[in-house]
Design brief:
The chain has 17 helices and two strands. The chain is mainly alpha-helical. A two-stranded antiparallel ribbon has the order 1-2.
Length: about 425
Amino acid sequence: MARLLRLAPDVTAGSVSALVTLSYSVSYAVLVFSGPTLEPFLAKGFRAALVAAALIALVVALKSSFPFAIAGPDSNSSAILAVMAAGLTHNLTEAHVSGERVANAVVLMLALTAMGSGLIVSLLGVLRRGQLVRLIPYPVCGGFLAGSGFLLLAGAFKVLTGQSLGWSALHVLGGQPILAWGTAFAVALVLLVLTRVIRHFLLLPGVFVGAITLFYLGLWLTGITMDAARAQGLLMTPIETGGGTWWPSLDVPWQPLIAEWRNFLAMLVVVIVTILLNAAGLELATQREVDLDRELRANGLASLVSGLGGGMVGYLSVSRSLLNVRAGAVSRAAGVWTAIVCAGIALLFTRLLFYFPRPVLAGLLIFLGLALLREWAGELCSPRSLRSHSPLQPGAHARGHGDPPGARRNRPRPLPAGISLLRPCQQSGGDLP
């Protein structure tokens, strides 16, 4: 009994982390599988995202330098995956490929990109190249993150309206039900404001639960039925619920798939930079030593395992890891419990995810995109960023190969340029880089 009681804080923290991880994972699945061709097969996207959430959380919890680490699908990589999925869908649709084969090709693309990036990231860790992040200019990092922010905003528009963002499509937003855009903007505004002033670990889960409750209350007060809500695009309408094998079929047109290699390289750079910056940000926030090479190996292995399981790419999250700490996590058991909860949802309760309101997911994406752009713009105009050229200044932090354990433990730790982009995560638990 005493042993079970000792696990109680980890179970509580892991459950909160799982709720946040599931919310983000669902929003990224909707982002990638948005549009009339892919949305009927959204269950495949849910499955890929939830498999990734479970497997990546498990591997990183066991292998990371941080015993409280939480990992999973992330906004930066998901934004680029959504671009790849849209391009692949467009090319296959023009070739008169059926919707089911298009969806299968997208799922295969998610798995292959996870495996490919996992192998390369792991290799960088084996070769002890973690300190390469010091050579990346700060404006390059900021540009990647700002681009991800814009892609998230464009994705939120597509989730909300079903159309790609563009000047000619802006009028479509006015044609959406007030419950749709009202809920989306309300969720984004509440998160943007409250995450700046409140640092409680239940803030994000509370906002998610409250938004869903108010959304369904709005449906009831306006007399909109569930079928009518799906017809208006307020809820998702799948054709199938995710049956079949976990690994996607290889019977897909390979030429359009291979043609996305340029976007894959862009995503790979974002993944590597984000992993290293996240690890450095966690070290700053928790005053724990970090081995960047170990983090590369752990996160690379996690994405590789996710891809082998039919999931998407993912990696260490600053926000969810700090949320895990604030919720009371004391060991790696919290991350393992997070993985177990995500796996249970993936195996048993996928159907329930179709009742997650689309406007709430769009609001979450708007929040993430605006937060990235806000921090990028603020840092771009700050005097310190104008003086800095590298995101990690030598000697600032981040023990690598060759540094004795504890060598910097008692040194002053100045905030490196570029790591300040992590501030909103450390303050709010939002899913920022």
